[in-house]
Give the backbone structure.
Amino acid sequence: MNRLKSLLWLFLSLFTMASAAQNKSKLIRVVVFNEKNLPFENVTVQLLSAKNVLVKSGRTDKKGTVLFSEPVKGNYYFLAKVIGYENGKSIQIKSPFVLNTINIKILPSSQVLKDVVVEGKKPPIQHIQGKIVINVDAGITNTGVSVLELLEKSPGVMVDKDGAISLQGKPNVLVMIDGKPTYLSGGELTNLLAGMNSSQVNQIELMTNPSAKYDASGNGGIINIKTKKLNQDGFNGSVSIVGGWSRDYKNNNGLLLNYKKGKLNAFAAANFNIGNSFTDIYANRNYLDQNKNTTAVLEQNTAIANLMRYKFLKAGVDFYASKTTTIGFSASGTLINRDGNSDAVAMWKKPNGVLDSAISTVSNTFYKLKNGAANLNFKQLIGKNHELSVDVDLLRYNMNNNQQFTNRLILANSYTQGTDIQSPSNLKIFSAKADYTIRLGKNNTLESGFKSSSITTDNKADFISINELIRTPDLNRSNHFKYKENINALYTSFEHKTSKFNAQIGMRFENTDYDAHQLGNSAKPDSSFSRSYANLFPSGYISYQADSLNMFTLTASRRIDRPPYQKLNPFTFIINKYTIQRGNPYILPQYSWNLELSHRYNQLLTTTVSYSVINNYFSQLFLSEGSDILIYTDGNVGKMKNLGLSASLQISPLKWWLVNGQGNFNYKQLDGYQNVNYQSSVNQFQFNLSNQFTITKTLNAELSGFYITKARNDLQELLYPTGQISAAISKSIFKGKGSLKFNARDIFFTQAMEGLTDFPQAQEYFKLTRDSRLFFLSFSYRFGKPLKLPKRSTGSANEEMKRAGS
């Protein structure tokens, strides 16, 4: 509690310092005029450094005026932007400012000469109403890494040893790509994000409290991965080639194409990635009696090697039938092959450390994922103030996971036992939605819509036991699971904006029905279960712009997490001879309330206090079967409370040096029941820091890293501290159309994942070491004239496939 009080005092101090800084800093007035020399309202004005780095932005009021505080010493200029007009640029001025007022005149596009306008560089991280935006290409250390590794170093994001993603300390995040769901969870989602490369990504949006327009799924919020899209007239393209090395070679290649002429716009994207990876696992499990004395020790060493091949292709067309009507179609396909093998040794020891017996386990895994997706979208403007958009999505996933295990007793009286598992599964999703927007005057917007989705999945698991050379079907563990789910939703949202106050309130209704059927065989009977439930999910925010420097925002929302389809399937997955994983058909949805208060000062400092409560909390459960086998499963254990404090700082100490830093503190308290009443808590800190250096006009460098203290996402598992440091350098070539980058990730090889798990009558220490130390060299080249296109539809399926995996 003393530490918590200190942190609260620190937050209040930062808030006071920001307010004091505002009072002491000098203000400069920027006034924007149109071609008639009249004040121009609602013009975006940016304050940029002489190196074109964005420092602060604001909008002009009815008098065409916006105020800016004095930044750190250096040279700056102002840039005024509005649609239909050429950008207006001020003279360069020096801080401390001598002038009190800067006047900028902007003219319609047809009345200006074709002068070259210098645009500001996007900062690595931007804080926008309701979300944090990460501009991937603005960070050189993002080069070459997978999207999963990109998320690991994003502020407030944590990825655990199983690939589970949490945001601002809250687990169970809805991951989307281009506004559409990834449609996978667990291992399937990990494979997808590990296959994608950062060269495919333009931005990552982090939203802790999304509006009612979004699906209510994701207690931790939403992570939206926005891929790169060309927006040029004529025929244009870009290409990227990345070569990397850890223990083995990796290669990532990408191609973007676009053709636009008249009413037709066609686009295509292709990516091919291939690479070897490794994971070394050490586990030491102590079995305990009722008095917590050690009765036996199981020590396990496992070496895993994987070869992944990732192929992606997407193509589509937009047809602008008229000024008010747009029709679009796109289709995409993904193919992932992951072949792995592992060699493990499990040693049973007596309490005094003397070896009792040892078993060697050799396994081979052949994983294949095929995905096909199609989207049809329609957008119609009705008059000046009405807009209708419709999206229809059809998706299919085919996944096949074949495993072979061979166990051999190493000591005297040796034997050989094995298991073959064939696990094919397929998933079909149909989703449709419609959104209607009405603009009520200049300040009000009303949005309403509906969404309906249907999901069916068919999963098989055929087990064959091998004793010496005799193969026998294992009907007790073999499984055939069918599942069908329908989700129907309605929402409405009202937003009001003025120069000082912005507010939004929304309500979303979702009804869920599902039926599950566990098919039997000659060894076990059929079983089935079904469930139907409906919920309301309110959300909203209110923000107050105290002046051009200070903004306060309060957001609140209620959200849900439905259990992943595969986790409802009570099939058995073998981890090793003494550890297995099993689904749980009795998992219920978990619900959360999220509250957040933030203060933003001049794009310089953002501080946030958050609080959330999750009921029916999902957590890993650890059960005993016999005297030596432990079972991993999932279930509802009780309640999780999370108090969060965060501060984000963006400063430029020198003209050639830009610093972005974020610190997050979370106090988590978990209460639940697992054979006995459990209560656990943790004080969890996470720090992200990025330093960017401008060496010359064409040469830039970056030094970045992150560190996470002890953390906890599950009731019975504590994660130990981890972190890494990366460095990169970038050279612009071919008159800015190309670039060469070199990136060294996790230079000191410190990003291990280790922790301690409390089992029933057992305790296990584990450590996972993988190929986190990577070296990349990349080349990229683009061509074409910049010309923005209308925004393409984001589709209708927003969360279902997230829960497809196990």
User: Anything to note?
Assistant: The chain is about 5% helix and 65% strand. The CA atoms of residues 651 and 711 lie 29 Å apart.
